[in-house]
């Protein structure tokens, strides 16, 4: 019995041309699929970009999203990253109230514990950078709330299949999304 509301990480290698992001996100939205997270960036080949999607749903949703993506001419390849052994990261920049004194010291300690960095210091607040798995980033946000978060921005999730799994992931994804 398929599980509902599973989190699926898909990686689409796409041509690096104007309009690809709008085309793909519009296609998914028009079919009622919600993108939980999206990150896009140029790859080692400047002619290609990688789009990393997180979609929530059952295996049928995953299969349909994959098939829809592969129908788009500018999509070169789609991989179901979450079906393999993979590494994922999320990046957070956060401004938090930190007037000089004890509070600022406590914040510095928490930043160190979470292996983050203070990247900017103002008279009344600091800006912090944290990267890691989604649950780590979320835990850090919860620890900062009592101090007074003034601004927060996150990237979408990025992910890569661990070394030695690339060929298997490509074979599995191509078989899974084949029409």
UniProtKB/TrEMBL annotation:
GO terms for cellular component: cytosol. It is an enzyme of class 2 (transferase). Residues 9-83 form the ACT domain. It comes from the Bacteria. It catalyses: 2 pyruvate + H(+) = (2S)-2-acetolactate + CO2. PROSITE patterns: ACT (PS51671). Keywords: Amino-acid biosynthesis, Branched-chain amino acid biosynthesis, Transferase. Pathway: Amino-acid biosynthesis; L-valine biosynthesis; L-valine from pyruvate: step 1/4; Amino-acid biosynthesis; L-isoleucine biosynthesis; L-isoleucine from 2-oxobutanoate: step 1/4. Its EC number is 2.2.1.6. GO terms for biological process: isoleucine biosynthetic process; L-valine biosynthetic process. NCBIfam families: acolac_sm, PRK11895.1. Belongs to the acetolactate synthase small subunit family. Catalyzes the conversion of 2 pyruvate molecules into acetolactate in the first common step of the biosynthetic pathway of the branched-amino acids such as leucine, isoleucine, and valine. Dimer of large and small chains. This is Acetolactate synthase small subunit.
């Amino acid at each position: 019995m398929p599980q509902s509301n599973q989190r699926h990480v898909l990686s689409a290698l796409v041509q690096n041309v104007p309009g690809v992001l709008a085309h793909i996100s519009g296609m998914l939205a028009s079919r009622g699929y919600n993108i939980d997270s999206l990150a896009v960036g140029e790859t080692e080949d400047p002619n290609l970009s990688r789009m990393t999607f997180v979609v929530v749903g059952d295996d049928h949703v995953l299969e349909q999203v994959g098939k829809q993506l592969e129908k788009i001419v500018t999509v070169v390849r789609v991989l179901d990253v979450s079906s393999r052994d993979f590494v994922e990261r999320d990046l957070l920049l956060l401004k938090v109230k930190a007037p000089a004194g004890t509070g600022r010291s406590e914040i510095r300690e928490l930043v160190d514990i979470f292996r983050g960095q203070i990247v900017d210091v103002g008279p009344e607040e600091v800006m912090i950078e944290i990267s890691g798995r989604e649950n780590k980033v979320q835990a850090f946000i919860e620890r900062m709330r009592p101090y007074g978060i003034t601004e927060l921005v996150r990237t979408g999730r990025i992910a890569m299949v661990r070394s030695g799994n690339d060929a298997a992931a490509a074979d599995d994804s191509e078989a899974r999304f084949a029409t």
